[in-house]
Amino acid sequence: MTPMLEVRDLVVAYGAIEAVKGISLQVQAGDVVTLIGGNGAGKTTTLRTLSGLLRPVTGQVLFEGERIDRVPAHEIVRRGIAHSPEGRRIFPRMTIEENLELGAYSRRGKTAEIRDTIDRVYALFPMLGERRGQPAGTLSGGEQQMLAVGRALMSQPRLIMLDEPSMGLSPIMMQKIFSTLVELKGQGTTILLVEQNAQAALSLADRGYVIETGRIVLEDNGPALLGNELVRKAYLGEE
Length: 239
Fold this sequence. Notes:
4-stranded antiparallel sheet, 10 strands
């Protein structure tokens, strides 16, 4: 079966420094795949490259069988990939609803369809709907994360990439975010997840990759990685 997303021998550099050193990975349609690793391992760089924000030095990225590693970022969104970045990057002075409308920029002109998608985001995150006219900068960190995920969903992606969605959140808010990911998976959305909470990420994942200093050092299904002794010591804090 052809993967929805396939990364082949990807190398990405900042000047002379290679941040990603020849990684390969696959994401099957409908799966949740997670990338785990320490700070500076190359996880965020990988997602930024897949979404067209960075250009690889060498290697290939294929989405639904077609190369996208030289395709502009806005065109990658149109093709069906959305990226919710690390740090949320919402527009603080704009309202919740205006932020969501910006997420549908690639579908501009389709007013009725966009309205329908906004309503679906509000069904997923009722708090956003209740406060749709509120400036996004007045939201808590967890609420801003909901908005960032909702904004990514506005382009109606077939694959959504999430970079550290639980970072800085309270346990309750983190649980809400992961419950939403379970719901999205149930709706058939394919998810590529970068997440510091390895326990939560691997519990949700169909497949996981461990990345260290720009290289994938381990890959397996989620439950197997969750039970792997090296993973438990390095990323789950167990002796």
